[in-house]
Amino acid sequence: MKNLGIFIGGSRCNLNCPYCAGETHRIKEIVDGEIINEESLRSILTEYGQYLESVTLTSAGEPLLYPKSIIKTLSLLKDYKVSCKIKLYTNGKTLICPDKDLVDQFCIMHSLGLDELCVSITPEMFHEDLLKKFPNSITAHVFEHRYNLVLHKDFIENAQMLNAVMEQVKENKVESFSKVVAWFPRNEEDEYDEFSSTKLTLFDIKNLKDKYPFLEIYGLEDRYESGDKMTLFPDGSLLSSWCS
Ligand code: SF4
Q1: What number does the ligand 1 atom closest to the CA of 14 have?
Q2: Stated pTM of the model
Q3: The domain at 3-239 falls in which architecture?
């Protein structure tokens, strides 16, 4: 295993996206400051910690509603001498107008090794043109950030819509921005989900990638089965079926 995904936080989210893949994993609520499956995480870190090339802090809800859990997890990674790249997934909502506590907590996260924010482009973010609010006092504290985009038909209806989202990203591109990673939804068997995916032809994809070199599109082929990337889920299972 080279890349480890860790679920952070509990069952709460401050958005309600029509395509949420996290809902099915909201099996328990936690107190901010707790780590889900701490014992399992410790044994994984004992075995693989020093070999990891990246760690992704992900969630079934919004991880930044549990900032103390993020800090505690980062401290644990430090205790196990994990020195690789550490990324945090977020829908970005709390970053638009961060309160002072969150800014302070972000400074601590950065000092504990958080390298990158992976900010989801949600329907709300796009329709309310919120990308222009980045960077802010918080993103200035991380080395870089990238955007994540789910190519779900209930949001990205077609190639024109994807083009419109990319134009908004281009307009608001900032120094710390690295790329947009877009992927098609996956079904319960962890395969490309034709039913809920945006219909894009290979021609559309090639045109979009030529036009926006910062756009990467994944998910038509199976890329999660190599075992290089594993995620520790809230129910304690360690599986390759989650995005990176
Ligand atoms: S932000 Fe993420 S977890 Fe929250 S509702 Fe949207 S997809 Fe689900």
Answers
A1: 4
A2: 0.91
A3: Alpha-Beta Barrel (3.20)
